[in-house]
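User: Just a sanity check before I run the rest of the batch. Below are the structure tokens for the first item. I only need the designed sequence back.
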């Protein structure tokens, strides 16, 4: 295919980076030539279109990925033996990663490097959107600690599907639906399972097309952003600190947190684990896809770490969709960064929403390159942060994606080793 040939010539992440640079140059030129209005009228709409495409696909994507992920747990015999423990461990790991990400974002505050004048200009631009949400957030602070339950359980699911800020409710419904499908005999739900398999293929193809448009979308968004920042350079310093914060957080998870877990909760030696996982991490790093890395992860976990096939063939494929520690930590930092850069104040209720949304949405993130920024647009909208803020970080996404994918696959392997130890205590991996 022609587009494929073009993408192999210039890899997508380079195209995105070029798009970002072109956008910055166009934005700066517009400031010098007084062409901000041209940017506003003729270029900005293309960026908005790209964001809309991300938003339109996010809900179907997360719905289908979640249903497929949960129903993929398949026959209950296997599920009850390994499933409960595996899911619990995955949930604990993801929650820890998100909480750590929120902590890092709140302590380092990379977005606060953005000059207050520039941040004010930006927030003025999105004033009505931000003010609306700020009002809602202020109301929420007075609604009691269990108020967030209302945000999770809808009274009418069709209304949730039509409101981008209600995605948490869609996620709840998807998990509820998938659990019911999981309990029923396979033959009974086969048509629905086949339908979701096919739907998943179609939606992933649509996601691929949208991601392929990223270079143009990023160029337009960046041009507009630079023009609105009035060429203020503080944004670049903030971006550099943001990238460093994400990289540091991911490296801590990979080289401090996982080794500690391996050391104390598996019979393996840390050095053994690190050595066996190194090629897998490298593979994940270069492909940026935990799904593509799955066979390599399986091979290392079974043949080098000695985990039984029964455990690895269940824990790892489930982990590819459900367990994304790198992605969830990244999403938390990115959300806080964009909020800080755009001058959006987040109340504690919004922080709780970010926590829940990030945990659940990283479960629904496909293990493909750039999978999480499609989902990030949705997380941002649900807490009232203008999704256009994504423009700030997309240009830098690829290297961070490489790193978070390496973390994602390592997390799956750690859990596989832990489950193996619990199921076969005599059978030392
Ligand atoms: N690329 C990641 C993965 O495949 C997903 C993401 O965070 O974008 O695991």
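Assistant: Here's the designed sequence for the first item:
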């Amino acid at each position: 295919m022609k587009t494929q040939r073009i993408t192999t010539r210039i890899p997508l992440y380079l195209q995105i980076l070029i798009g970002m640079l072109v956008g910055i140059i166009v934005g700066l030129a517009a400031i010098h030539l007084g062409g901000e209005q041209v940017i506003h009228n003729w270029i900005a709409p293309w960026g908005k279109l790209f964001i809309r495409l991300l938003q339109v696909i996010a809900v179907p994507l997360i719905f289908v990925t979640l249903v497929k992920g949960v129903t993929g747990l398949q026959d209950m015999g296997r599920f009850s033996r390994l499933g409960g423990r595996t899911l619990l461990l995955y949930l604990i790991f993801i929650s820890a990663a998100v909480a750590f990400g929120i902590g890092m974002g709140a302590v380092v505050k990379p977005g606060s490097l953005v000059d207050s004048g520039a941040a004010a200009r930006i927030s003025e631009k999105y004033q009505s959107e931000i003010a609306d949400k700020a009002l809602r957030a202020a109301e929420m602070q007075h609604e009691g600690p269990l108020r967030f339950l209302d945000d999770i359980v809808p009274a009418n699911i069709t209304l949730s599907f039509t409101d981008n800020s209600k995605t948490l409710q869609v996620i709840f419904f998807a998990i509820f639906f998938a659990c019911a499908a999981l309990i029923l005999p396979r033959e009974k739900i086969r048509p629905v399972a086949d339908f979701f398999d096919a739907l998943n293929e179609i939606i992933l193809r649509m996601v691929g097309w949208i991601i392929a448009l990223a270079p143009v979308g990023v160029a337009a968004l960046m041009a507009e952003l630079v023009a609105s920042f009035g060429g203020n350079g503080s944004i670049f310093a903030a971006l550099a600190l943001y990238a460093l914060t994400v990289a540091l957080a991911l490296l801590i998870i990979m080289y401090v947190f996982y080794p500690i877990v391996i050391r104390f909760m598996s019979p393996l030696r840390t050095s053994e684990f690190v050595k066996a996982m190194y090629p897998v991490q490298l593979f994940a790093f270069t492909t940026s896809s935990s799904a593509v890395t799955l066979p390599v992860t399986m091979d290392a976990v079974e043949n080098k770490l000695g985990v039984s096939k029964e455990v690895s063939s269940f824990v790892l494929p489930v982990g590819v969709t459900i367990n994304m520690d790198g992605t969830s930590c990244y999403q938390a930092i990115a959300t806080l960064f964009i909020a800080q850069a755009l001058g959006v104040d987040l109340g504690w209720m919004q922080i709780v929403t970010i926590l829940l949304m990030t945990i659940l949405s990283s479960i629904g993130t496909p293990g493909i390159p750039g999978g999480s920024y499609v989902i990030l647009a949705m997380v941002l909208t649900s807490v009232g942060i203008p999704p256009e803020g994504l423009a700030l970080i997309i240009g830098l996404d690829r290297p961070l994606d490489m790193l978070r994918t390496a973390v994602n696959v390592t997390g799956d392997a750690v859990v596989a080793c832990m489950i193996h130890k619990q199921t076969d205590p005599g059978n030392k991996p």
